[in-house]
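Figure 2 data, in text form.
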Amino acid sequence: MVRFLYLNLALMVLISVFQTACTTYGQPDKQSADTLRLPVLTLQQKDTLLQTAYVADIQAVKNVEIRARVKGFLESIYVDEGRLVKKGDPLFKINDEEYKVGLSRTKAALSNAIAAAKASEVEVQRVQILLDKQVVAASELEVAQAKLAADNANIEEARAAVRSAENHLSYTLIRAPFDGLIDRIPLKAGSLIDEGALLTSLSDISSMYAYFSIPENEYLQYERTRQSTPDQRSTEVRLTLADGSSYPYPGKIETVEGEIEQNTGSIDFRARFPNPQKLLRHGATGRLFLSSRIDDVLLIPQKSVFDIQDKSYVYVLTPDNTLKMRNFTPLTRISGAYLVRDGVRPGERILFEGTQNVREGMTILPQSITPDALQTSKK
């Protein structure tokens, strides 16, 4: 009997120890969570300036093809590829012997026409005297005057031929029409070229155009920003080059096309960038950043968001500081933050960072923080 009592007492002690151990084993997470201090952000609506990136096609303000206007042998090339030239600098020389001969021939024809007209004028004067003396009929004078008119017309025709020959001769020396940069020269000296043959291209890169297209809804945002912002910042744009570096000079939007492209639902813009260092070249590409103002939006830092099956979630704090998962719909993703379409409301508190160290239902000690400036460059 005594032995039985001892056994019962030992069993009760073991059960008590086991229950205590189980209780202690199940509680550390709660105690740890209760003492875990984490940063918490209170969501607030605010106005923000959104910088959206677009693919930019960069072109020179002037880019023209230099073509031969006359046929002949390419006698001289005065420039090299990639060279900067000034307006009026000689670029190419086409052999001009044939055109000099042609000019001499037309000048001779002009002299003959002038001489013939002079003779006809003398004849008119002679016939007029005879008519006054009633020696000849009036028709004789009319014939002489018609001959003089024809000779005068021949003079004008000969003068036109001379001007044409002079122009053709001048076309044998090709000069730069403006300051610019020489492109590739496909032909070499001695080549026989036809009228209209491409000799090179010339680009004025003192400043550059950047063409880009934006969707209609973003165009409307841009217009609202421009109309509500009186200074020139509303039309200022920035450029990122192909290697990812930032172009040091801001550009300015100059024109917007008058129609929205029906097939794409977009509209084309043109911005101008200064190019004092000649870094930008015709045909280059880059990413252009356009600022537009958005009013009363919620911004959630990217570090506060975690994704599950392509859906975005945050941890929202209840009044008793318990974490609850909440799905929200982003309006757009920007560098460093999300713009919220729906799912969370102003005034709600969310876990700022540390989402990988917590789980739903945990209670934390919130540490309120002030919202940091969020980057707003659209990806």
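Caption note: The helical segments are 2-26, 28-35, 97-132, 138-170, 216-228.
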